[in-house]
Amino acid sequence: MSEENRYEQTKKELDNYKRMVHLMQDVMIELDAEGRYCYVSPSYERTYGQGKEIIGKSGFASIHPEDRERVENFYFHGFQRGEASRIEYRNHYPGKGYVWLEARGMIFVNDENKKRALITVRDISERKRKEEELARSEAKYKLIFDKAPLGIYHMNREGRITDCNDLFVKIIGSSREKIMGLDLKSLKDEAYVNALKKALNGEITLYEGSYASVTANKITPIRVFFAPVHDAKGHVTDVVAIVEDTTVRKSTEEKLRYMEQRWQFAVENSGDGVWDWNIETGKVGVSDRWLEMLGYEKEEIFIDHHKLLELAHPKDRGYIIHKMNLLEQGKKTSYDGTFRMRHKNGDYRYILSIGKVVEWEKEGRGRRAIGIHRDITEQQYAIDALKESERSKSVLLSNLPGMAYRCHYKKDEWKIEYVSKGCFELTGYYPSEIKSWRGSLKDIILPTHIIADSEQREILWKQWKENLRASHSFQIEYPIRTSWGEIRWVWERGQLFRNRSGKVITVECFVTDITERKEAEEKNKRLDQLKDEFLANTSHELKTPLNGMISLTESLLKGAGRELTDIQRQNMELILISSKRLLALVNDILDFSQIKNNDINLRLKSTDLHSAVTLAIDLLSYQAVHKNVKLINAVSPTSSALMVDENRLSQILFNLIGNALKFTDQGSVCVYAEEKNEMMSISIQDTGIGIPEERIKDVFKVFEQSGFSPDIERIGTGLGLAITKYLVEIHGGEIKVESMIGKGSVFTFTLPLYTQKIINQEKKKALDLVPLQQNNYALTSVVKSPEIVENINSEFKVLIVDDEPVNIYSLANVLFREGIHVDHAASGHGALALIDAGLEPDLCIIDVMMPGMNGYQFCREIRKRFSEFELPVIFLTARYGKGDLQLGFEAGGNDFLHKPFEEFELVARVQTLLQLKKSVSKAMENEMAFLQAQIKPHFLYNVLNTIAAYCEENRKEAGELIIALSKYLRASFSFNNLAEKVKLRQEISLINSYVFIEKSRFPWLNIQVKIEANESLLIPPMTIQPLVENAIHHGIRHQMAEGRISVILLQKDNDLIVKVWDNGVGIEEEKVDQLLSGTMDVQGVGLANIHRRLQRIYGSGLNIKSTPGVQTEVSFLIPALLGI
């Protein structure tokens, strides 16, 4: 094709293009490299009224100032790079104003070889208007979403949370990070999951119940409204859930069930109404709930700002107008206020209104505000009732000891409006005088004639100013001077009331006299100071001689003076150890007095936990007796030893178990333990009242108590748990508590184990007393050395039971010098084995704290074999508590010896009990002689006459009678009767012989003897036969026929029961006590002797039941096979 033809072809195509552009509805323009118009299409002129007159002018001049720079940068950047792209902006046209446009352009080179931009322009104002409406709608929803008084969350089709408001997070008690993305379909609450699944299927559902959060340890009663959201095709895209925390409502319903149905309905359906105020037009959009508050339906009323003012109470309209003007003028961005509005029925409701401006005019005025209305009528009534209650309280205050007053700020001065009558007794000023005071607040509350000390007055005013700035209530103590010059201390508690701007305008206070308390505090302070001085002086006085003793002893051990024998060296080493221990004790007393400075030293040693727990439980068991509480030691007897201070461990256990008992009325208190990482975790679990969750963090604070129920009396100082925590922590452990109200509490603490590592470390140390533990020798080699033991020929034997070799050696050394034979055992089980093997000690000295079986348990086992008189027991202990003494005596102990003991005290207590036992044995011999003397001569005479009569008539029966009499006399005068107990078979033989003799004399006697017991049992001698004799001679002897006697010896549940019954004359009730006390004059063998002996040995004597003229039963019991 020739050049001419090509030109014609191009021109023809250009003409066609121009005709097409003329026909296009979209505007087309052409700009040069500087942005000037080169061409505009006819549609541009038709649309915007501008044509060829703008050719050559800048295309940027009419662009909105806010968009101009952005468009210029966009244009020139694209022009340089030759890129085609799009942009949206606002352009101004005459008669139309600013119009939103969408421009699409491309860069080309014209026939003059110049770059040009070809741009199509489309009007998008309508689309932009819709986008702005959508943004406003979303903002409105977002505000409602965030400010709603209910929790809200969104859930996608997969059942996962995609968004939620802060209130929902608060209701659940979790965090937004844990909630977002949570799969709700996996919850274990079937009702909740079923409700949300129905919502995902398009149903509107409701859930109500107690929701257990899986992201937080919290159970919350809630009500959830599930609303599905559909797309244009009707498919569910997501679900909106509205969550209400019904905790308060549930509680209110339970407590106020009897209230009117209307109030109950209001609580159950409580909610806020939403309003949307177009400030420019005055139109107010409201929700159904907003109308419902005032009793209207949507069709009944049209709401704008005029109607709003019309519904308002006349006295509140000015206030509402003022608030609305602040929003309209842009002086306030948010709004809140309380006013009254007229209900449809004519009543006025109190409304709390809260709102916020969400759209603004260009000049900064408010364009649109949204907010909520909340009906607070009932709350307002409650406030009015509170005011009336306050008025009543003011009347009561006038009768209280002390002074109440109210001062108010009005007309630039403070004035006292009210003062109670107690002011005269407190200050010496009459109410009328005080009410006349005016001026500044400082002059009113701190007058110079009452607060005379100017420096004190300034200090008080400084405290007052701090309260005025930051507080609503306060309390303060200070001295005052009365009108008659007396100085008194007062305690003042006040309440501050502020106006809407936050300024204090009213002060209400109550003042009472605390002079006596202050004087007591000052006295206690002086006493505390004296105590500290006493401790310091005492420690000094004790340390000086102790240091001297230690120094002298060490010198002797190092060879000062003459060479020591082995025994002397052991004694000197024992003195050194004891002196050092006593010095450590003095230091501990001082350390403990300074416990607040965390400066106390522990005496660590291997300690058996099971034994320590058993001892603590034994000490506290008396408290559980009066409650339906079981104390359980679940610590294994084979558990590992602890490396602790033994006394501090006892103190910790005593505090925690005692605390558990205090707040447990039924169930159990259980102690258990387990090893964890070289530590022993020890727990005390109870089934008591529990501790409120909000108070758990305070239970270990000083003066706090763990039981906070108003039904439980507060007992104690509140120091126990604080001290316990301190003692645990200085051992290197920690303590914590878990509790549930009504279920009980678990206190858990940790203490270090006596590990192999510690054992190895101790082996490397030089021991202070090498001979006692050298080559793994037990103390036996020391105590029973030939030089000490074999040369002793004593009438008394003492058994020492202690796991501490030094203690045994110290005791034995003293007793040897007194000529007393000593045996020893390192444990309770070992001591029992010695006794069961035949050892017959006259006295036992028992250490209380021993592993396996503590001293109290061992003593109880002893008492199953011997009475207090047969084998006396002295407890050896370092504890001085009243409970320890009581527990020891209840276990069967005779006496206590406290460590460290004085030698003369040990000797005195041991000799006293040994001599007492000897005296009791002598008295028993005398008593048996007396009983044997009770056998009447005429009884023997009558028996011999009976034998003589039989000799003439029946020699066989005479022989049998002589044998029976011989057995009777032999059993009565047996040397065995000098012992405290004889075998049951000897008493049975005596009974059988006596019964045979009496039946020979009185053939009509019907005597039955039933024996169902071990005849090897040991019982006090001559206790049963005298009862049979008494039944014959004083019961049925004079009944010439039908005289019956039943003798029953029955072994039941390890007890021996003895009963002697007869159908004789009986005993009158008032004479029974005389018989048992020995005040009744009777012949022969009396019951009083037997009664006293049984009481002395077993704690209970004879039991007599008798009906005069009918029958008599005499019985007694030997408990728990003590006779074996």
UniProtKB/TrEMBL annotation:
List, for all copies, the residue spans of the domain called PAS.
Answer: 13-82, 137-181, 259-331
Q: Which residues form the Histidine kinase domain?
A: 537-755, 1024-1122
Q: Which GO terms describe its cellular component?
A: plasma membrane
Location (main, coarse): membrane
So what EC number does this one have? 2.7.13.3
Q: Which residues form the Response regulatory domain?
A: 797-914
- Which compartments is it annotated to reside in? Cell membrane
**Sites of the modification 4-aspartylphosphate?**
D847
Q: Does the keyword Phosphoprotein apply?
A: yes
Write down the Pfam families for this protein, in alphabetical order: HATPase_c, His_kinase, HisKA, PAS_3, PAS_9, Response_reg
- State the reactions this protein catalyses: ATP + protein L-histidine = ADP + protein N-phospho-L-histidine
**Chain's role:** May play the central regulatory role in sporulation. It may be an element of the effector pathway responsible for the activation of sporulation genes in response to nutritional stress. Spo0A may act in concert with spo0H (a sigma factor) to control the expression of some genes that are critical to the sporulation process.
Q: What is this protein called?
A: Stage 0 sporulation protein A homolog
Give the organism's phylogenetic lineage: Bacteria, Bacillati, Bacillota, Clostridia, Peptostreptococcales
